[in-house]
Amino acid sequence: VHQSKLDFFCKLGYSKQDICKVLENLGQEALEDDVLKELIRVGSKPQALESQVQPSLVKLVARGSCSASPRSKWLGEDGSDSSDHLRPIVIDGSNVAMSHGNKEIFSCWGIQLAVDWFRERGHTYIKVFVPLWRKEPPRQDSPIADQHILEELEKQSILVYTPSRKVKGKRVVCYDDRYIVKVAYEKDGVIVSNDHYRDLQNENPEWKWFIEQRLLMYSFVSNRFMPPDDPLGRHGPTLNNFLSKQPVLPEPKWQPCPYGKKCTYGNKCKFYHPERPHQAQLSVADELRAKIKVPLSKGQEEEQCNCSL
User: Fold this and answer.
1) Where exactly are the structural domains of the chain?
2) In residue numbers, where are the C3H1-type zinc fingers (predicted)?
3) How confident is the model over 79-89, as pLDDT tens digits?
4) Which residue in 54, 163, 276, 293 is a FRET match for 188, CA 20 to 30 A apart?
5) Which CATH class is domain 89-243?
6) Measuring CA to CA, which residue among 258, 186, 190 is closest to residue 218?
7) What CA dihedral angle connects 7, 11, 15 and 21, to 10 degrees?
């Protein structure tokens, strides 16, 4: 009985000396609950608790996650700020707001959703361009929803109003798209818009390349800002690499051909064939045609003649 109780409390982490002292005081027939109460009263602690000097900094993360917090995964290996590795973001405010409002209402909440999405990723340079006349009270021909969001973003130095004025009762508006492309080009950032800026592409060849390579399109799904995972198409970079200054190139993965040795595509097959080391063989049909065109040797001709006789 003494040995069984000793083993039991040793598994709980208590030292043998404390257990023996308590058993001597209470007797060998003492109940386990009484022994445990006496150990606690004496002040004995399990060794696991005594060795735990500092609280553990390890946190549970979701399955498939790379780090403990969404921001830490964008930090560099040297612990530098994530803004050093992420591109600046320039948002076409009018395009985003009208897209969120189904092209009927200038929805400022859509701009807030886009800004919050990039903030959560760790982007620190975020600029939103909106014409100055959007500060005016909404009218029937230009309704605006949640206009107070524009004031809040302006206080945070995120929203920038492009100039506009009235001349003899007519509104003179500067071309805000030019501001958007120019700032994004100078900052080597990313343009967030569903507009293609074709007029600006024709105006400047450098802007043409930049717009084609740095334009990030998006969609709103149930008040959720969702850019595509492949901004430049199926064979282009991933969204993470697209938004990063230092993209991480994935390792090439060779997918085996599902047809195996029965594949008839030959060198046109895009899959991997272990039996074709140089992946430059002709298709089966081309191989058969080539064999037919090869002239027979003299020995083979004599054999065919003897067979015919």
Assistant:
1) 1-42, 89-243, 251-277
2) 251-276
3) 334 457 899 99
4) 163
5) alpha beta
6) 190
7) -40
